[in-house]
Amino acid sequence: MKILLRATVLLVTLAIGAAAGYWYAAKYAEARNFAFDMAEVGYYASFMSIQMREGTDATREEAIRGHLALIEKRKAHTSPLFTEKIAATDSALGYARLSALAKKRGADQEAQQLLNRAVSFCPQMGWAECGSEKIISFVQQLDKQGIFGEATK
């Protein structure tokens, strides 16, 4: 009987230890993935900020498209720091910037399509007023003042 009791206690202890280890490993992996995601977002945000100030129109467009691709990738992994509203707002601003660059190079039809894509995010953004003029105005204000109020070119 003592052997059966010892074996049962051992098996229960192993099961509890395995469950606790699995739970902690899952939480660690979740935190690690979140940290890597935030590092990637920070990298792209810095890259895009530099390109918006110092880059050519082509490198600006490349940076914006990279940022939009990252947003699409991150949509599947929303978090308290990366909500649907943030993703929609960042996407709308990115498409509005691409629209301005397309218009600058004379691609008016492409510019209108990109602006329409920007406006398509309005329902998810949560803005009281949202339309092409409002988004364009906001982008121009952001690009003039910079995200933290610093002056940009």
Structural commentary:
The mean pLDDT is 86. The radius of gyration is 24 Å and the shape is elongated. It has helices spanning 2-54, 57-75, 84-104, 108-119, 122-125, 132-145. By secondary structure, the chain is mainly α. It is built from six helices and no strands. The chain has one domain (2-145).
What key phrases describe this protein's structure?
single chain, 153 residues, mainly alpha, 6 helices, 0% strand, elongated
Quickly give the structural class.
Answer: mainly alpha
Order of helices and strands: HHHHHH
Total number of beta strands: 0
Shape assignment: elongated
Biggest sheet layout: none
Strand content: under 5%
Helix content: over 70%
Low-confidence stretches: none
In round numbers, the mean pLDDT is: 86
C-alpha Rg, in Å?
Answer: 24 Å
Count structural domains: 1
Number of helices: 6
- N/C terminus separation: 82 Å
